[in-house]
Amino acid sequence: MHTPRSATEPLSRDSSELRPLTGNEAIARGAWEAGVKVAAAYPGTPSTEILENLATYPAEDIHAQWSTNEKVALDVAIGASFAGQRALCAMKHVGLNVAADAFMTVAYIGVNGGLVMTVCDDPGIHSSQNEQDSRIYGMLGTVPVLEPSDAQEALDYTKLAFELSEQFDTPVILRGTTRLSHTRSPVAVGERNPPPARSFIEQPSKNVMIPAHARGRHVVVLQREAKLKEYLASAPINRMEIDDTSFGVITAGTCYPYVREVLPNASVLKLGASWPLSEQLLREFCSKVDRVFVVEELEPIIEKEVAALGFKVAGKEFFPRNGEFSPEVVRAGFVKAGILPAPPLDNGWTPELVIRPPVLCAGCPHTSSFLAVRASGARVAGDIGCYTLGCLDPLRGLDTCVAMGSSIGNAVGMAKAGETKPIVATIGDSTFLHAGLPALIDAVYNGANIAVMLLDNHITAMTGGQEHPGTGKTLRGEPAPRVDYEALIKAIGVKWVRTVDSYDLAAVHQSLREAIAYRGVAVLISNRPCVLDPVKIKGPPLQVVTEQCTACQSCMNLGCPALTWSDQWFEGRHRVQIDPALCIGCTLCAQVCTIDCIKPTAPVTA
Amino acid sequence: MSGSKLASVEAGEASAAPAPIARKTPFNVLIVGVGGQGVIMVSKVLAALAQWRGFEVKQSEVHGMAKRGGSVFSHVRFGERVWSPTIAKGEADVLIALEWAEGLRWLPYLKPATGIFICDTKRIVPPFACLNRKPGAPMRYSRETAEQVANYVAEGYAIDATTMAEELGNERAANVVLLGALSTALDFPIADWESTVSEFVPKKTIAVNLEAFRLGRTWIAEARSPAPATGTPPLLPLAEVPFTPRLEINAAWCKSCDICVKMCPERCLRLNDDRIAELANPEKCTGCRLCEWLCPDFAIRVHLEAQGKAAEEAAR
Question: Which residues of chain A lie closer than 8 angstroms to B83, CB-CB?
Fold first, then answer.
């Protein structure tokens, strides 16, 4: 894992005040400068590094924590806001779905200390299960949405978001995208400047949302939106850049630099706040130019608002409603619209592309779990994590994957619907604590006949190795109580619980068969640490005794990246070789080798 | 030291001093490779150096899946004013590839007339490339030779940076060898490069990395001289071997355990109405013999019937 250069680290020889920061680092810096006291999140690409960076600032300035899920994280932040402190909650777009319950009501309650939710969307689905547009949550919750276009704005808007939050008594969404989070650009940083201390305000009509109070608060929320629109009509973050008036472009966030890249001289309305939209501002801009385009990633939110004002506007007609934008996509849209000439042809290079999806690492403990699951012939409900990669060839071990913690609920539903195959749910440790536990209680309560495989690799692996309540460490690396899964699972009424070593393939196979045979809920904990985090595991590699290999390629069923074809062959098939640099010596391939020709290069220790 | 110059330009022309950096329009460097190779480190060194030299720099990459052996890329753009953080197709001034097939994947991003292609000949074959069990099936990996690639690039270098780094005693310094090669395309002072490299590598490896950096620089200078080294070794050619697999299942010995059914990688076996194993999808069977090896009752035998003389020879 590369550690991003911390924003707190002094630069040794920088000629200017500018620091190269990623969007996430800049958001963390902005939050620290704004005097944030409490920050919470559940890891989720691309938002993960916000909290990791906040944890590099002094502990006396800021309490930063991993929460069990986004809903809890938001509740923690809301609590800090109640107590009068500035609070930040970071999440990826789908995390906001989890937190949406609290979000929709805190939108009514408003804030005491400033409350900012940084929500990172993933257009193009680099590392997610969908590409929903979080700006719609702003509309749904009647909450302002700020959209920075680069790292400098990420820092500035984060600070502004806290100001607006307190000024207008509202939570504020700071919406980023993968491109913003993971792009490094120069940032001028400032100093920490916390606001004057506030204390808890006893005001039940505002803080206790019973129906009688909520009715009144909804009126306040609508008035708040009107005031925000008034402010945003002339706020400096909504910038009009008038040049060539034959057409104009309305855009926001990371689309802005793409527009500027392909159209340096166009008139642009650059919206720093993509919700709410000031009708006055939109009217003013649209009347200055002859033709209006809206360039926005994902949903046509701005476009619909402009159209509702009666202006002729083009957006999704030329720019796609799915996928990530880029200079190419924006250029192609303007070419289609007749604004730009068609680009010249490329160099005509059309190679056969090598398929290189992410794969389970060499020695990944999930490998044996999915070999066993596959051999069980069960219907498998999968979940979110590295192990979702088990759906790919050659493991092909997953039948479904919906959302965090869905596997167990899906398995219950399949069992109750009368699926004839045995039913297995596979779920990782971090995902289990995030949203799997209520589903497991549901399964026990409703007497479902399912086997649950808890893939315990002692870390939140997919997002790059973050701590969670099952790892025994906090975000800052301090010791913490550790969840005892067996005791927890027994306590909710599961009668069949067993822990097995993931590297003992026969034991995993046998235990899973028993778990499936058990009538009722059975939980099998497949236990081995992740090979990458928190420490990189590397044992003596194994090697193939080539002349013995019969090229049955049984070991290729593991999908292990250390195993490839050698240039030797047998009966028309390639014999197999092991890359010693990648092999960590987990011995799974030796355990599946049909003729026992995979041997250790050094004595194996337990 | 091995590798080759892919260039189709005249030797005399190429040995000229590196082109000065375009100050008005951004200079675009695309760095690609496979997760864990050090793509991000290369781009961080370049970005830090360019910023120190007073340019606006944008460096963009996508994390998340990177560690799991997936394709990794990083865009670095610098100039007086840089808007987009990503490089559009056909606009990269330099493409640095830490892995051969990844380099080929991103070739369309190079400027067709002037782009410089610097590619490690290191091949990282993904497990997906080796999943076809059919006898004689080809590995799904780039087959293009360095000579073929040369037709598509203005100036290109295939450099065996991994071996060079190995010879220095640290395979992980391959990315710094490529950084040294990259340094020849830019007019930043050599001392600045070296101090920036030292800043970004682990303290204990500064010496070996600086050596790797210089090696990359001198290699390029030599490759620019008229006699290019020999071409990169192409992948082993594979003969098509037409075997027809035939399964012989002894019904009397089969006890319906269905181990063969569940473990068949192509899922082409099933239990019939009498609960005896049978080959349901003969066209999918690759004759891999796994069922034969795994059957506890020796009830399955796989016969590979070679077609033609060539196949017989190949089978030997």
Answer: 257-258, 260-261, 264
Please tell me the predicted confidence (pLDDT) of residue B149.
82
Please tell me the distance in Å from A424's CA to the nearest CA on chain B.
16
User: Is residue B230 in a domain?
Assistant: no
**What ipTM describes this predicted complex?**
0.88
pLDDT at position B235 over 80: no
CA distance A193 to chain B (A): 28
Same domain for B194 and B265, yes or no, is no
Count CB-CB contacts under 10 A for residue A397. 26
Phi, psi of A379 (to 5 degrees): -85, 125
- Write the CATH number for B299: 3.30.70.20
Residue with the bigger pLDDT between A414 and B2: it is: A414
| B51 is a domain residue | yes
pLDDT digits (tens, 9 = 90+) for B160-204: 998 999 999 888 899 999 999 999 999 889 999 999 999 999 999
How far apart are alpha carbons A151 and A176 in whole angstroms?
10
Residue type, A186: P
Do residue A185 and residue B59 have CB atoms under 8 angstroms apart?
yes
Do B267 and B169 share a domain, yes or no? Answer: no
Residue A177 corresponds to which tokens in the numbers above?
């995208």
Q: pLDDT digits over A119-137, tens only?
A: 999 999 988 999 999 999 9
pLDDT of residue A572: 78
Residue of B nearest to A464 (CA): B64
3-state secondary structure of A283: helix
Nearest CB neighbour to A185, from listed B57, B71, B102: B57
In this prediction, residue B187 carries a pLDDT of 86
Beta strand A239-241 pairing with A115-121: unpaired
**pLDDT at residue number A346:** 67
> Could you say which of B58, B89, B314 has the minimum Cβ distance to residue A572?
B314
Residue B225 zone, left/alpha/beta (φ > 0; ψ -120 to 50; rest): beta
End-to-end CA distance of chain B: 36
Please give the residue range of the domain that contains residue B247: 243-315
Residues B99 and B14 in one domain: yes
